[in-house]
Design a protein that fits this description.
- The chain has 256 residues and is of the alpha/beta class.
- The protein contains 8 helices and 10 strands.
- The strands form 2 sheets. A 7-stranded parallel β-sheet has the order 1-10-9-6-2-3-5.
- The longest helix is centred in the first third of the chain and has 18 residues, at 10-27.
- It is globular, with a radius of gyration of 17 Å.
- Bound molecules: fructose -6-phosphate.
- Residues 36-40, 63-64, 129-131, 135-138 line the site of fructose -6-phosphate.
Amino acid sequence: MAEVVIVGSADEAGDIAAGIIRSLLEQLPDAVLGFATGSTPLSTYRALAAQGLDLGAVRGFALDEYVGLPAGHSQSYRAVIDREVVAPLGLQPGSVRVPGDDGLPLQGAGERYERDIYAAGGIDLQVLGIGRTGHIGFNEPGSSLASLTRVKTLTESTRLDNARFFDSPDEVPTHCITQGLGTILRARHLVLLAFGESKADAVAAALEGPVSASTPGSVVQLHPRVTVIVDEAAARHLEHADYYRYAWDHRLDWER
Ligand code: F6R
């Protein structure tokens, strides 16, 4: 079962997630990290930056990227990763890949990204957010649970959710290239974060509903090592919330 941690705030969640990443880097300074973008992981990246660790050996792979934005667009995930992750964490320039960033045709970019992840030794820890549609990465409902990196069409609901980052909703691309659910399952540790009431249904469906392509986030139930960190609002519809709190309060010394 996933370890579910219910916290008071996104900052608290960020501190816990950053602590998990720090422990990994103490063991493995050249770990390969998988980076989500969007609002959710920002407190984790801030907390990690505040720790002042030397992350010069870390390599990374972004979860996804929009298709069709002009090169250098401030909301491309390439730009977001450089701004929110590479610069503040002091990662080496070029150490974090983004799907489709190899300058080769989009067709085949998914397969090439998979090969590059494999060549890097796989992703040690993947940071994830979840969308209101239940997507992780940009794997919208209906995505194969075994899918690998590929081009997908965003739902209208996700485009509207992400319109807040753009000048107008029409500017949000209709397509993306995203790690697949099968790609995400190959990472060695998944850290899934969610905050706010708007995520409560998706979180409950992903963690406690049936494993189904209709709720792509439910694929985490198939993974042997998942840490879910949610605030009270996002945890609101979790049937077993009391048990998750109890298990966290009673974790063993070596789990702390
Ligand atoms: C981002 C990503 C998405 C987001 C999700 C939640 O790389 O893959 O799955 O994590 O859309 O977005 P926010 O965090 O902005 O609510």
